[in-house]
Amino acid sequence: MDKYDVLKKYYGYQDFRKGQEILIDSMLKGQDVLGIMPTGAGKSICYQIPALLMPGVTLVISPLISLMKDQVQALNQAGIHAAYINSSLSEFQISKALRLAVTGRYKIIYVAPERLETYEFLQFAKQTKISMLTVDEAHCISQWGQDFRPSYLKIVQFIRQLEERPVISAFTATATENVKEDIVCVLGLRTPRVLVTGFDRKNLYFAVETPQRKEGYVTNYIREHEADSGIIYCATRKNVDKLYDQLQQKNVAVTRYHAGLSGEERKQNQEDFIYDNKLVMIATNAFGMGIDKSNVRYVIHYNMPQSMENYYQEAGRAGRDGERAECILLYSPQDVMINRFLIENKEQNNGYTQEENTAIRERDEERLRTMTYYCMTTGCLREYILRYFDERGDKSCGNCINCIREFEETDVTEAAGKIITCIREVRQRYGINVIAGMLAGEDRAKLREYGVMAYPSYGSLHELNEGEIKQIINQLLTEKLLTTTGDKYALLQVTGLADEIIDGKRNVILKRMKKTGEDRNERSSRQKKNSSKTRNSDILNSRGLELFERLRKLRAKIAGEEGLPPYIIFSDRTLVDMCIKVPVSKEEMLRVSGVGENKYERYGERFMEAVREYTGGIHEKFFFGEMIDFAEDRVISEKKTEFSLTEEQAEQFPYADRYLLTELAEKLNELRDAVRMKKISGAEIFRKLQDEECVSEMFQKGMRKKIISEKGLEAGLFLDLRRSKKGTEYEDLYCDRKAQRKILDMIRRN
Known about the structure:
Elements: H1 3-11, H2 20-28, E1 33-36, H3 43-53, E2 57-61, H4 65-77, E3 82-85, H5 91-102, E4 108-111, H6 119-126, E5 130-135, H7 154-161, E6 167-172, H8 177-187, E7 193-196, E8 204-209, H9 214-224, E9 229-233, H10 237-249, E10 254-257, H11 263-274, E11 280-283, E12 296-301, H12 308-315, E13 325-330, H13 333-344, H14 354-376, H15 381-388, H16 401-404, E14 407-411, H17 413-425, H18 432-440, H19 445-450, H20 466-478, E15 482-484, E16 492-494, H21 499-502, E17 509-513, H22 520-530, H23 542-562, H24 566-569, H25 572-581, H26 586-589, H27 597-615, E18 626-629, E19 634-637, H28 647-651, E20 659-660, H29 661-669, H30 682-691, E21 695-700, E22 703-708, H31 710-715, E23 717-723, E24 729-735, H32 737-749
Parallel strand pairs: 1-6, 1-7, 2-4, 2-5, 3-4, 5-6, 8-13, 9-11, 9-12, 10-11, 12-13
Antiparallel strand pairs: 14-17, 15-16, 18-19, 20-24, 21-22, 23-24
């Protein structure tokens, strides 16, 4: 068998995803690899396929028991013999597993790093051909990582004791440049094939909200998503327990997880969540690294995490199946205080020098500031995250709250100059609270104690309140015109770029959200509906959705019978593909994405029987005219509908004093359902105006000339001069606000 045979037979896929084949080929050639791939990109397949094709055993070093159990269950379901070795097994069970491994029973063995130094495991390793050693969650080996685990250093010692060095492969979803270099260096990777496929998770919607009552926001959100599975992260055990009690009182099917619970209760609560007995998990960051649950539809952070690495790793537990999911952070200034307290009271590592511990503390403070700026930015949230991980992103992703909400832009250059002057006057000795209070002219005991009233800058921005001044300071920090000291005091300092403001060479523009009478929750819901990202199941028509629900119930029934999580049987995307392909024979079922030979033998006939029962064996069409390319995780349009607007979409149109027809078309296209609907062009709008007898066209001296009728003039159409790229002036057709309304009504009528 070759890699393609393995991919189809065991995993049920026809093609590899981005980056997978490159890494697989490198490992099969005997080359070390480092794969940095986002959650849900298929990292496991990258090392599992070479493991099946290599002659000996592959050891996979994994940090959590739950992750090992999940992976081994999935492999055994696919027909691949695998085992795990960790503290959840008795010594007898471990000895038995190792004896079977020596006889060639297992091709893949997952093992906790602590086990590598035990005498029994070392003896096993010395009498077994280990073809490859794979380090999962490889960022744990880096002291620069957010989740450094000293136990991971045992991996290096273990490799040195092997008589023959195996291929070393390492994988992680989040790694800055420092962490990437550390992984290569500490693991001693030899001329490795390093592949970064990108950190972007296009199916995830990002938002930062600032509700007055977080508990009320969460309750409403869960009610709106009562059929969805989700995780709510809290910064402290106290917050977990408080929110858990509040939601239980409101009859929400919720469970919880934190280190203060007994081991048995944590295990039971985790299983309730994984097996969909309880759809909502409230937890501290002690939960989740090893959770491979694919159908988590949302992750809400009740409190701001301490770092971008932590946030992206936790948020990334949503939407592992490639379906649309939401990552919402509920921010309040108190979150910064809680995190600073946790950092200050963090136990120091006795294995480090005082200087090293100080450096770690300063790095934690810097990460906290970066996370705080994320919560305050008005720019694209996805672009902010990608930039942190040294990756370029679009300035507007169209799938985060800042890209789809409405902002007003204000030039705050003059105020920025006063802020810079003030910081220099006080010789960069104070943090944001003192500077903001000083500029606003506040009269507080602390400010009097510092004697800031004596400076010329005191009260120089009295027309603004402290919150508004802090917004401008945060913008200056984002643009790197200001910085802060690395200690816990975070004193404001001026960078060399600030002179551009003082010298009048640079403007500072602040974006503020437009104030409307609309309720925050209503606005957030509308904004998410206008986002262009959809779930794969959204392409199913009403009959298709009914079949999908029947297949989901069958999956839940089988999962209960076999004691497995439902997503281990088949993922949601596989069920969607069944609804699209309507398989009623073995050949057709094996063409469904995610159905391999072993899965077919186990479950294929039962799912085909459900399809036959619903369809009568007829290949009915259950979707809206699109097909999904599961390998590329995108929707392929087969036939799109003509352009149209709903009343709700028309209400969102951004009216302006004047638009060219091409500009008007662009604004209209931003409102449409891009997956199912064709674009409208300026030429098409012109033809509709012709049909309404508002305009006509004639040739004059070999050129087209637009003519507006009296009816068109009354409607608000007018001609004005434009200049071509070559400098030629010509008349073109414009529409004012009145004409824009007429055109929208005209499109809606048609």
